[in-house]
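Hi support team,

I submitted a single chain yesterday and got back a structure, but I'm not sure I'm reading the token output correctly. Could someone confirm the output below corresponds to the sequence I sent? I've pasted both exactly as they appear in my results page.

Thanks,
R.
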Amino acid sequence: MIKLIRVRKLYKSTEAVKGIDMEIREGEILGLLGPNGAGKSTTISIISTLFPPTEGQVIFEGQDIVKNPKAIRRLLGMVPQEIALYPELSAYENLKFFGKLYGLNGAELESKIDEVLNIIGMSEKAKTPVKTYSGGMKRRVNIGCALLHNPKILIMDEPTVGIDTQSRTYILETVKKLNREGMTIVYTSHYMDEVEYLCDRIYIMDDGHIIAQGTKEELKASMTKENTIIINFEYINNNLVDAIKSMQDVKSLIVEGDTIKVTCEKNSNLLQKTLLIAQDLDCVITSFFVKEPTLEDVFLSKTGRTLRD
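Hi R., thanks for writing in. Yes, this is the structure output for that exact sequence:
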């Protein structure tokens, strides 16, 4: 459906996207997972033709949309990370304004507004000014504005940042529902659990690169040669951390309070070695367990740090 081929984006001397390849398939929810500053927003801005890449191609159904952006614009709905609404207007008035920008008028526009208000669960608050809404309600109206013209592809940039749990759940279920009805969705997030719950396939980005891709099952399977071990101590000192970190089989290590999280070779005897080191250094282990791999572990294995770092 859409292919990115060796796409780069430079902002003066900063390279935000570093020669990535990507494919978006019709009817899927594609996840773009990575920390803030990874290049996710730049990538979707290029896909949505907000600005061109410095190098590379974006092909939509055989046409290069870098050269011909009109080939895709009418088929796209864009939900930006920042709230893009007029606060003095109501949800209804915002939807009416944006609907007219899409060329909708009269009975068709009124019908579509009613439909969208129902989808986003805002019918009862439709005539109340946006400035009185909670963050989650504003996010829902933001999504509604992108749905007015029946887009074939919906691009969502961190749509649940800074909202309450109830609104977050509502938005995630709305995304699922829209996809079941046939909409292709590109969903960016730094929340691993959202991407794991929603997405058919996932690209993990870091520092402008795609560092892993596949289904969540494929990405987790890439960890089959490794274990993640969580070890809790009564007390951790620098000598203990340095001793564990220096072990040959250690792939990555992070310290959180009195807990050490280690990724190591699957057949490693790291746990036994750690027990001996802890004993020598008078560091008491209170508990330990081997953790099932997650997308967070995939990122940690590839970069040596967590998504929140």
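A quick pointer for reading it: The domain at 2-220 is CATH 3.40.50.300 (Rossmann fold). Let us know if anything else looks off.

Best,
Support desk
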